[in-house]
């Protein structure tokens, strides 16, 4: 694995998010790759905040990054919140350093000042578009002093500094995920390094900081690939050794298209938390996209393990094995995975996780019925956020139409007879003092016989009536278990109410 360079110098990786809004799931994937590498090779994971775009700054976004990673259990070692030997870790606090480097590049002739006004650049871009040319600065300012430039149109006092790309040759590098990459220099734009507001662009700051912070592996999403030749040019001009640069594959929606913030709310990692996905399930899911964790019980078959955590991800992670092609995010699979984790939890732990969702829905988790009800749903629950809706039948009466009490193919009179029978069964079981799923079973079987409901379908209709009458729903966990948790008094009361509803229906 020569190309990945994990041997030798101490590995240092970084996540370099721009605090411009919510935390994108693609950034979380990169963070997981970084954390896995740091763990596997005993390296250091740095968070650096790339807040050089003042126009896109979003209050609170930085904290959101820390909170999201912490929620997932992803750990980092250096950063604005943790400090470290290369502080400050926010680019807005490192401006003098970028100025110095930009001036040095100008002095060397590797960069130049540009006084073109935004209007001129805009006009140039539109003309290029109209002629189907790639967008590229036309070098109007190259080789001119400010006074010389003033003689031409489209001048502004507020200058920027641009990188001068070579006119010939290729910029090549080896991406551990994608292999050999090559870009024709003549096609590359002279990108801005320092803006007129005195802030560096991403393209300058990322290079200076990766160098200064001794980053050995710069891992980022595929969308940054077109910027890499410019970065490499800066490294060469400054005589610095670039880190290994790798571009992780894009995450795709189920149609294999790009994720759009508008159409795919799950582009935002916060969505998973709001929906009641467990962090361990989300981490497991993302881990699945980047690492093959073998099933130790089946090693010879090359079967992947389904449930695993961060330590297995880092143990089996190989940068070269991720592959460049996009990874589809399959929410059905994640639902399944989440359900698996929910099933494996102790009931107390599940109650703790579900609690906030119940409280937000106004359901009282201090109610003694909560734990019994939750135990019944544990097997079926996929997202924690579903809990209030499925558990509410235990906390409050549902409002439902009388027609729901009459199963298909059953006459209202027959439904009334079934319900009358169920009421007397429930009253006597409740009176016996032994109200449980087991004690309901025999008398209900006898009731079916006495009502002459002999086929499975007919018995199903009876239970259908009782199910709706006691819960207001047509689908619930096993009926007698549900009735047992509800308690005799509640069931008897609800059945009586249902009987009143049914009385209002015709024959
Ligand atoms: N600031 C860039 C971002 O927001 C960082 C890209 C990189 O890691 O180089 O993703």
Write the layout of secondary structure elements.
Layout: E1 12-15, H1 25-40, E2 44-47, H2 61-72, H3 95-108, E3 111-116, H4 118-130, H5 146-150, E4 155-163, E5 170-175, E6 179-184, E7 192-194, H6 202-212, E8 217-221, H7 228-238, E9 244-248, E10 251-252, H8 269-274, H9 279-290, H10 310-316, E11 327-328, H11 331-344, H12 347-360, H13 369-377, H14 387-395, H15 412-432, H16 437-450, H17 456-471, H18 479-486, H19 488-503
Parallel strand pairs: 1-2, 8-9, 10-11
Antiparallel strand pairs: 3-4, 4-7, 5-6
Bound molecules: glutamic acid (GLU).
Glutamic acid (GLU) binds at residues 16-18, 50, 202, 206, 218, 220, 224.
Walk me through the structure.
This protein has 507 residues and is mostly helical. It has helices spanning 25-40, 61-72, 95-108, 118-130, 146-150, 202-212, 228-238, 269-274, 279-290, 310-316, 331-344, 347-360, 369-377, 387-395, 412-432, 437-450, 456-471, 479-486, 488-503; strands at 12-15, 44-47, 111-116, 155-163, 170-175, 179-184, 192-194, 217-221, 244-248, 251-252, 327-328. The chain folds into four domains: 1-79 and 249-344, 3-Layer(aba) Sandwich (Rossmann fold), CATH 3.40.50.620; 94-248, HUPs (Rossmann fold, 3-Layer(aba) Sandwich), CATH 3.40.50.620; 346-396, Helicase, Ruva Protein, domain 3 (Orthogonal Bundle); 402-503, Arc Repressor Mutant, subunit A, CATH 1.10.10. The protein is built from 19 helices and eleven strands. The strands form five sheets. The protein has a three-stranded antiparallel beta sheet. A two-stranded parallel sheet has the order 1-2. Helix 1 (25-40) links the parallel strand 1 (12-15) and strand 2 (44-47). Helix 9 (279-290) crosses helix 11, helix 13 runs antiparallel to helix 18 and helix 16 crosses helix 18 (479-486). The radius of gyration is 32 Å and the shape is elongated. The model has no long low-confidence stretch (mean pLDDT 96). Glutamic acid (GLU) is lined by residues 16-18, 50, 202, 206, 218, 220, 224.
């Amino acid at each position: 694995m020569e190309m990945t360079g994990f041997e030798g110098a101490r590995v240092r990786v970084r996540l370099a998010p721009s605090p411009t809004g919510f935390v994108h799931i693609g950034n979380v994937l990169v963070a997981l790759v970084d954390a896995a590498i740091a763990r596997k090779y005993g390296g250091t994971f740095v968070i650096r905040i790339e807040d050089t775009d003042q126009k896109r700054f979003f209050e609170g976004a930085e904290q959101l990054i820390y909170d999201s990673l912490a929620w997932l259990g992803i750990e980092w070692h250096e950063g604005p919140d943790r400090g470290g030997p290369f502080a400050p870790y926010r680019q807005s606090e490192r401006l003098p350093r970028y100025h110095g480097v930009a001036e040095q590049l100008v002095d060397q002739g590797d960069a130049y000042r540009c006084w073109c006004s935004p209007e001129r650049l805009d006009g140039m871009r539109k003309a290029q578009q109209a002629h189907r040319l790639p967008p590229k600065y036309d070098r109007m300012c190259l080789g001119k002093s400010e006074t010389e430039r003033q003689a031409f149109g489209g001048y502004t006092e507020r200058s920027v500094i641009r990188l001068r790309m070579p006119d010939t040759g290729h910029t090549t590098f080896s991406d551990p995920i994608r292999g050999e990459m090559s870009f024709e220099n003549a096609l590359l734009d002279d990108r801005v390094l320092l803006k007129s507001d005195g802030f560096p662009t991403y393209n300058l700051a990322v290079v200076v900081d990766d160098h200064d912070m001794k980053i050995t592996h710069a891992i980022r999403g595929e969308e940054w690939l077109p910027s890499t030749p410019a970065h490499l040019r800066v490294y060469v001009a400054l005589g610095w050794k670039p880190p290994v640069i790798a571009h992780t594959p894009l995450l795709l929606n189920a149609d294999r298209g790009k994720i759009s913030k508008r159409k795919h709310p799950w582009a935002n990692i916060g969505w998973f938390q709001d929906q009641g996905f467990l962090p361990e399930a989300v981490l497991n899911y993302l881990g699945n996209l980047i690492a093959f964790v073998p099933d130790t019980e089946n090693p010879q078959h090359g079967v992947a393990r389904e449930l695993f955590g961060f330590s297995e991800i880092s143990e089996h992670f190989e940068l070269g094995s991720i592959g460049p092609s996009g990874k589809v995010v399959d929410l059905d699979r994640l639902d399944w995975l989440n359900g698996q984790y929910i099933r494996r939890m102790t009931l107390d732990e599940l109650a703790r996780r579900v609690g906030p969702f119940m409280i937000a829905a106004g359901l009282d988790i201090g109610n003694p019925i909560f734990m019994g009800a939750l135990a019944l749903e544990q097997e079926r629950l996929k997202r924690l956020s579903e809990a209030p809706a499925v558990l509410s039948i235990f906390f409050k009466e549902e409002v439902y139409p009388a027609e729901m009490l009459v199963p298909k193919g059953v006459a209202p009179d027959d439904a009334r007879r079934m319900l009358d029978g169920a009421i007397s069964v429930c009253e006597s079981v409740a009176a016996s003092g032994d109200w449980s799923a087991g004690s309901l079973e025999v008398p209900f079987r006898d009731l079916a016989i006495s009502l002459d409901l002999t086929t499975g379908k007919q018995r199903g209709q009876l239970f259908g009536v009782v199910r709706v009458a006691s819960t207001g729903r047509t689908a619930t966990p096993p009926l007698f278990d549900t009735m047992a948790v509800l308690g005799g008094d509640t069931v008897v009361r609800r059945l009586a109410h249902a009987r009143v509803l049914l009385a209002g229906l015709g024959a």
